[in-house]
Amino acid sequence: MSKGDSLVIGNLQCVVLDCPDATGLARFYRELLGGEVNRPDRRWAVNDDFATLHTGAGLVLAFQRVADHRPARWPDGEHPQQVHLDLDVPDLDRAQEQALGLGATLLHVDPRGWRVLADPAGHPFCLLRG
């Protein structure tokens, strides 16, 4: 293999978020991103402990129930983010208002023009002007 060639070991199947309520968090992200919760898919068995969201953009998010889930506390290193999503939005104020209405929590308004929120399970996500 020459310099510059890359070896692909696999393809991203989905992003999995730990949470206390798999279906509830899948529904939260459906309202935020659109898509279909628990669409039949041979790759996953969905149940009370595992839910999926197939978005219109083709991204699949999965949600796994963890009984002793400890939410992140942004930016506290003792409870790190572990994963977060960046969402491009046309109107930051409107997107923030809608996300808060769905159960998100505002964590930070950055003076450079983006917002950090947490989903109902405590996972941080950012709203950026798209």
UniProtKB/TrEMBL annotation:
It holds the Pfam family Glyoxalase_6. InterPro entries: Glyas_Bleomycin-R_OHBP_Dase, Glyoxalase_6. Transmembrane segments: none annotated. Residues 15-128 form the Glyoxalase-like domain. This is Glyoxalase-like domain-containing protein.
